[in-house]
TrEMBL record:
It comes from Lates calcarifer (Barramundi). InterPro entries: Abr/Bcr, C2_dom, C2_domain_sf, DBL_dom_sf, DH_dom, GDS_CDC24_CS, PH-like_dom_sf, PH_domain. Residues 357-484 form the C2 domain. This is BCR activator of RhoGEF and GTPase. Residues 1-158 form the DH domain. It is found in: Cell projection, Axon; Cell projection, Dendritic spine.
Length: 734
């Protein structure tokens, strides 16, 4: 019943807007036929409009009666609006309204119907905000909101009669289902496209470059009727290899974005005026557009009936699955016909129909919008229920960062169960994140059952869902339990958020007999070794079976396993080696990272940290090398020997980059802040005279920390003075 009522409201609102539109567009230029070539409303059209629009209905009779004898007598200066205003004053005077001179200007009268649409739009916003996407009324509310927004946005535009903005004639069944900015791979180059999915076709467009003051226009690049669309595999086409962008380039873009944001915040506190900020915003837009263009690497391939393929690049498996699901569902019921003229009209109408008006960049957020969460989100994936058969199931977690989604963690495979219980905890770093996505996959062991899509043998997505990361709810330090319901499957989660300021603060351990939170020189002296036992054992186990693990050190390990290993090392458990052999290698990598992160003082020491940050910024390569090596050799001996031991290990990990996807830069990104972040609450390289936000300050510090470690990783060898050579050779025999 609710759906029928809402459908009726939507239909009446669309009819209302079309009549109101017909009145407003010709009224401005309307003159006597003898003096202009502009289109003129007929008496029948005026009668229809005034009868249909409720706010104008009360003056309809007087207007019509008075208009008929006066049409022949219009002067060159009169328009239909003048007559409309005079007649409205006449009607209002019969009702003894007060202060009519202030209330009955032509603009005021014409705005009354528009005001109704404005109020309706606000109501639709609120309804949509509190309506779950799975609710049957959600698409109807989206349609109603789109119609209202497109009408309001066109009120002040200088356009010819807007019949071109109508998708098809009334009564036909073509509707816009979704539209997104996407990256298309064209002859090895990345191109930004705006893709529109209608009920019967997929339309790929390019936004035209327009002169200042001109409205948006789209060019149609290609389209595929849904009835003819197929999803390509690598066997179906001569697949073009995806040009991969180096992680160093991606991180450099992120750093540049953080720097520009920092400059914008500084300029807002000065009196240099809006021109400087506008110039910085333009630079920010260019960098963020470039990042969104270069970051996605996941192929989404479609083809037409002739086998011609088109490739999009997507960063999220969640989003790729959404496109496939919507297209497959629509293919069951679509009917297609499209002439060349209709295609042109459809392309033109995209400006009015689009629901995504801007590229998803941080600079497009309003000042009062939430910037997202910065810090660390601990997520426990408890269990799943609602499975109808036993499966080998695992979950992956995605969060948004810099306008696109990235995979952050993956549970182990829970085998042959209808009620998997993972109870695995992950720590996920958030960078302006607002949404957490969860995907459930069936691990297909039998190759004949695997999905061969986009050139890869993939596991099957059984369910997917997402939740908004509400800052107010997550600011509570307690665990927040939630359930994500999707396709009949429910996954239980717990979440806890900690800001960067608190989560990365180095805290000395009260238990000095352990190893975590204890100074490295204390541990090595107690163990009578040059390198702490925990570092040696973790490195040995990772080199034994983790060198080809995809994302080693980047993928989060299970938090409960990491805590178990931490407790075992702290208590000097003799069975720790046996425990490590039975645990996932990512948990061992996580334990090693946790050890360095919880050192009460960084491996590079608080005292030398500002000097390292200054040395890496030197432009002269000879001076930089001399400075950095002298600083390195100034470290205390346990710190230096442990670092060189770890450095050699990380280089060996990077030698397997083609398999484990961990480059030197990736490893520097993971370990740089861990090894260099100072223990003080306020960084020594922050310039207190230039106030910047904590998040911008964090990004600038991370940049320096990553660059310092990367510099040493890229050195083929580290030369040492003769006075230290013998000591270091002896020290590395650990």
């Amino acid at each position: 019943m609710r759906k029928w009522v809402l459908s009726g409201i939507l239909a009446s609102e669309e009819t209302y807007l079309s009549h109101l539109e017909a009145l407003l567009i010709p009224m401005k230029p309307l003159r006597a036929a003898a003096t202009t070539s502009q289109p003129m409303l007929t008496i029948q059209q005026i009668e229809t409009i005034f009868f249909k629009v409720p706010e104008l209905h009360e003056i309809h009779k007087d207007f019509y009666d008075a208009l008929l004898p006066r049409v022949q007598d219009w002067s060159h200066q009169q328009c239909v609006g003048d007559l409309f205003q005079k007649l409205n004053l006449k009607v209002k005077s019969t009702k003894d309204c007060k202060d009519q001179s202030a209330k009955n200007s032509l603009e005021t009268l014409l705005y009354k119907p528009v005001d109704r649409v404005t109020r309706s739009t606000l109501v639709l916003h609120d309804l949509l905000k509190h309506t779950p996407p799975s609710h049957p009324d959600h698409p109807l509310l989206q349609d109603a909101l789109r119609i209202s927004q497109n009408f309001l946005s066109s009120i002040n535009e200088e356009i010819t009669p807007r019949r071109q903005s109508m998708t098809v004639k009334k009564g036909e069944n073509r509707q816009l289902l979704r539209d997104r900015f996407m990256v298309e791979l064209v002859e090895g180059s990345r191109k930004l496209r705006h893709v529109f999915l209608f009920t019967d076709l997929l339309l790929c467009t390019k936004l035209k470059k327009q002169a200042a003051g001109k409205g948006q226009q789209y060019d149609c690049k290609w389209y595929i009727p849904l009835a003819d669309l197929t999803f390509q595999t690598i066997e179906d086409c001569e697949s073009t290899p995806i040009p991969l962008v180096q992680d160093e380039e991606i991180d450099a873009m992120k750093i540049k974005i953080s720097q520009i944001k920092n400059e914008i915040q500084r300029e807002k506190r000065t009196t240099k005026g809006p021109k400087v900020i506008e110039r910085l915003r333009k630079k920010l837009s260019e960098q963020e557009s470039l990042l969104l263009l270069m970051s996605p690497n996941m192929a989404f391939r479609v083809a037409n009936r002739n086998g011609k393929g088109f490739t999009f690049l997507i960063s999220s498996d969640y989003e790729r699955a959404e496109w496939r699901e919507i297209i497959r569902e629509q293919q069951k019921k679509c009917d297609f016909s499209l002439t060349s003229l209709e295609l042109q009209m459809l392309t033109n109408s995209c400006v009015k129909l689009q629901t995504v008006h801007t590229i998803p960049m941080t600079m497009n957020k309003e000042d009062d919008e939430s910037p997202g969460l910065y810090g660390f989100l601990n997520v426990i994936v408890h269990s799943a229920s609602g499975l109808k058969q036993s499966l080998n199931l695992y979950c992956s977690l995605e969060v948004d960062s810099f306008g696109y989604f990235v995979n952050k963690a993956k549970t182990r495979v829970y085998r042959d169960s209808t009620e998997p219980n993972w109870n695995e905890e992950f720590e996920i770093e958030l960078e302006g994140s607002q949404t957490l996505r969860l995907l459930c996959y069936e691990k297909c062991c039998n190759k004949t059952k695997q999905n061969k899509e986009d050139g890869e043998i993939t596991d099957k997505i059984m369910a997917k869902g997402q939740i908004k990361l509400d800052p107010q709810t997550l600011q509570n330090k307690d665990w927040q339990r939630t359930v994500i319901a999707m396709n009949g499957i429910e996954v239980k989660l717990s979440m806890k958020f900690a800001s960067r300021e608190f989560s990365l603060k180095r805290m000395p351990s009260r238990k000095q007999s352990g190893v975590f939170g204890v100074k490295i020189n204390v541990v090595t002296k107690r163990e009578r070794s040059k390198v702490p036992l925990i570092v040696r054992q973790c490195v040995e186990e990772i080199e034994r079976r983790g060198m080809e693990e995809v994302g080693i050190y980047r993928v989060s390990g299970v938090a409960t396993d990491i805590q178990a290993l931490k407790a075992a090392f702290d208590s000097n458990n003799k069975d720790v080696s046996v425990m490590m052999r039975e645990m996932d290698v990512n948990a061992i990598a996580g334990t090693l990272k946790l050890y360095f992160r919880e050192l009460p003082e960084p491996l590079f020491t608080d005292e030398l940290y500002p000097n390292f940050a200054g040395g890496i910024a030197l432009s002269d390569s000879v001076a930089k090398e001399s400075c950095m090596l002298n600083l390195l050799l100034s470290l205390p001996e346990p710190n230096l020997v442990t670092f060189l031991f770890l450095l050699d290990h990380l280089k060996r990990v990077a030698e397997n980059e083609s398999i484990n996807k961990m480059s030197l830069h990736n490893l520097a990104t993971v370990f740089g802040p861990t090894l260099l972040r100072p223990s003080e609450k306020d960084s020594k390289i922050s310039n207190s005279s230039q106030p910047i936000s904590m998040n911008d300050s964090w990004s600038l510090e991370v940049m320096a920390q990553v660059q310092v470690l990367l510099y040493f990783l890229q050195l083929e060898s580290i030369p040492t003075p003769d006075s230290k050579r013998q000591s270091l050779l002896f020290s590395t025999e650990v």
